[in-house]
Amino acid sequence: MYDVVVVGAGPAGSRFARSAAERGRDVLVLESGEIGRPLACSGHVSLDVWDFVPDSARGKLLQNEIHGARFHLGGADSPAHPFYKEGVVSNAVDRVGLDRTLAECARDAGAEIRPGHRVTAVREFPDRVEVDASGPDGLETFEGRLVCGADGPRSKVRSEVGLPDPEELLHGVLGFSAEDDDDDFVDVHLTVPRFFAWRIPRRAAGVEYGLAVAPGDDAPGRFEALVDDYGVDVERRCSGAIPIGPPDRTVGRRSFLVGDAAGQTKPFTGGGILYGMRAADIAAREIDPAHPASLHEYEHAWRSALRGDQTLGAAIRAGYSLPRPIQRAGMRARARSASTWTAPARCSRGRNSGRFCRGTNNPPSPTDAMTRYTEGPFRVLAGRTDDEWLLLDVNSADPAYVPRSSLPDAAVGNRVDGDLRFEGDKPTLLDATVDTETRFRFRRTDESLFEAARTCFETARAEGEAMNSRVTYDTDRNPNGIVYTFAEQPGSRDLFAEFRDGTKPLEPLLARAADGADPPFSVWVLDGDESFLAVYIVLGPDGLLERTMRDTYG
Fold first, then answer.
1. Is 55 within the bounds of a domain?
2. What is the DSSP letter of 274?
3. Parallel, antiparallel, or unpaired for β 185-189 and 68-72?
């Protein structure tokens, strides 16, 4: 009997298999056909994807480095609203190669991978699961303590065990042309009802075109109109469902879902590679196959980890369906808000002469030099001198330095509402008020860190993890804090300094803590005489625990 039978060897399934196998679990992965085929989704991914593959695979998988996007409210020749930051913001990768690399990582970790096994039935029993699969040797039955459904938007596992469907299933269409395009911008067209169409350059690998529509809309017809508008011939195409919005439940008696099967996707793009792999790691960490009750720990943990991103993503997607005048105003506002983004110069590129390129020496136009604004909220951190504050955009983590005189009553860790006005590169804070009086305290100390932190870190070390967390309780068993521990970083990295200067924002930890609790909090970042760093979020900033922390660490 296997600990877990995984159905589906896409990114989420292979990542779970690898993470679970590394923890000593006996894992079987069943894939219906050839790994990576048929192509299921776009290969436009966040840079974080490289955290999940060997360094040696990057050169083989990378097709293009993307620096920004051009948003259009019309077709190929419509005016473009460009957005980008200095540096690479995303990558186009070999999607089939990525799936195969992740599956190979799982195999190397000890998981058993069986392609060509199509699952036909799943049965849950009090003490096991049975999975029937049709393979090269006919129909086989595999037993496991648990079954993991990583088999995509129309999950067979989900239907067999009676779990609910995602909130919405869009119809996506992809096609690929043979163009050799070394552009480093993607094109996004807000011309599709409730979603968008896209064009992704892949250098020598060609160009990807795609769109997604609601069920019942004419996806093939809209796709033909898109590629005709660009005047290209598409040699290869594929289609499939894109889940938007997770179902109410993703765990059964001895079953659980990850990836697209669980609706773990970005609401505003439909992308699920990174979310699915993050959730897969959470599943491997939280689920003990010998104790099916741990499935509920996974349910809570993945929803808490992704809730902030999915809520923000849903709000962004809502803008796709706004009237055109409001969309145009939003484009202008977003352009003004990007304080670290620079207005690009024009370059000519054949038919689409209105495209933008980077790295030119053309002087900025009058439009480029206009005043820009960024809306809060912002998190307050110590600046480079005693006379300034560092403000981190809560949503984007973009930094800006302002005089302390503009926020004379603020403290490190406070969240403030207000606007930043940029004249050139110099920000001015307008109409600022303290929204939440959360306080951050950064302490390097010779004291040993408290027992809960040491226990939390020892658990992580025993499991081979660099980070861990646990809830602490008062004498009445009420939650009074959340402690996170991080192993010391290799080389020259100073994680304590990265937290203090905002290079590594504390915002994701605060977002998780806010689930079920009311800020303000008191946040202690402690670097003691230990091989780890602790972040302790005290839920009651005026309670006994906070007084104890002040007495101990100052």
1. no
2. H
3. parallel
pLDDT in tens, 145-163: 999 999 999 999 999 999 9
Instruction: Tell me, yes or no, whether 325 lies in a domain.
Output: no
Domain count, the chain: 3
Query: Is the predicted pLDDT of residue 85 greater than 70, yes or no?
Result: no
Q: What is the mean pLDDT of residues 132-143?
A: 95
- Count CB-CB contacts under 10 A for residue 168: 15
Query: What's the Cα-to-Cα distance from 30 to each of 41, 152, 234, 354, rounded to whole Å?
Result: 20, 13, 32, 48
Residue 123's pLDDT is what?
97
202, part of any domain: no
Same domain, 378 and 292: no
Q: Which of 188, 179, 177, 175 is nearest to 220 (CA)?
A: 175
Sign of CA dihedral 499, 501, 505, 507: positive
Is the peptide bond prior to 115 cis by the omega test (within 30 degrees of 0)? no
Nearest CA among 127, 125, 162, 142 for reference residue 250? 162
Q: Which of 438, 552, 443 is nearest to 496 (CA)?
A: 443
**Helix, strand, coil % over all residues of the chain, rounded to 5:** 30, 35, 40
Helix, strand or coil for residue 101?
A: helix
If DSSP codes are grouped into helix, strand and coil, which group holds residue 436? Answer: strand
Q: Are residues 412 and 431 in the same domain?
A: yes
Do 293 and 151 sit in the same domain of this protein?
A: yes
CATH number at residue 385: 2.40.50.140
Helix (H, G, I), strand (E, B) or coil at 34: coil
User: What is the 8-class DSSP label of residue 440?
Assistant: E
If one counts every other C-beta atom within 10 angstroms of the C-beta of residue 319, the result is: 14
- Chain center to CA of 543: 35
Helices (H), 209-294: 219-230, 273-286
Write out the DSSP string of 155-215: -HHHHHHTPPPPSEEEEEEEEEE---B---EEEEETTSTTS-EEEEE-BTT-EEEEEEE-T
Give the pLDDT confidence of 349-366 residue by residue, as tens digits.
333 333 333 333 333 333
Residue 415 DSSP SS3: strand
Longest dimension (CA), the chain: 76
Tell me the pLDDT tens digit for each residue of 252-283.
999 999 999 999 987 667 678 999 999 999 99
> What is the residue whose two structure tokens read 């303590």?
145
Which residues pair with residue 428 across a beta bridge? 421
Task: Mark whether 153 and 256 lie in a shared domain.
Answer: yes
Length in residues, the chain: 554
We report the CATH number of the domain holding residue 12 as 3.50.50.60
**Sheet hosting strand 522-527, strand order edge to edge:** 439-444, 522-527, 532-538, 479-487, 467-473
Backbone angles phi, psi at 31, to 5 degrees: -120, 135
Q: Provide the mean pLDDT of the chain.
A: 83
Domain range for 162 is 1-43+94-167+245-318
Amino acid in the structure at residue 469: S
* Alpha carbons 466 and 456: distance in angstroms, whole number: 11
CA distance 403 to 384: 11
Question: How much is the pTM?
Answer: 0.60
Q: Which two tokens stand for residue 1?
A: 């009997």
